[in-house]
Design brief:
- The protein is of the alpha+beta class and about 180 residues long.
- The protein contains 2 helices and 8 strands.
- The protein has a 5-stranded antiparallel β-sheet with strand order 1-2-3-4-5, covered by helices on one side.
- Strand 3 and strand 4 form a beta hairpin.
Length: about 180
Amino acid sequence: MRRHFPVRYFLRPATPWRGFTLIEMIAVIVVTGAIFALGGIMLGHSFESYKLSREVSDVGWQGRLAMERMVRELREIRSHAATDITTWSAGTIDFYNTAGNRVRFYQSGIQVLRSADGGVTSQPLADNLSATNGLLFDYYDSSGAVAAAVTDIYYITVRLHIQEGGIDETYRVTVKPRRVE
């Protein structure tokens, strides 16, 4: 005896289809790859931004610290006599402070150095100076004209030019030593 099955029974698979088609898998891989690529680009930009902000902070910190130290000590020059300001060139100043200590500021290579014993031992105040004209001193008389002699010095202008990575900063300050009248 033969059984009759409806046609619908034969068109249906024996087990239901499970899994994904090849096209669906490729679409998922492409979308996931695009998401990771955009995330990688954003992560790369954030690392570059962090590095730049760190360099800006480092340059600013070094410049401000060196300038504050030099200004504080330049204010303490004992007098504007030739015996108290022994060297006053564009890149070096050597003087005696109110306590009678000899102090010198100068550039060596890419560093600003401070010496308390005439240059025998030095401590760095800042790094990454411009190789040429990284530290400059200008000397002015009481009218604002360039000082012709050490006894004419009334104001001292300090310029500090620091370069690091893509950062290029110049700091400038004018100081009137307290004992100079």
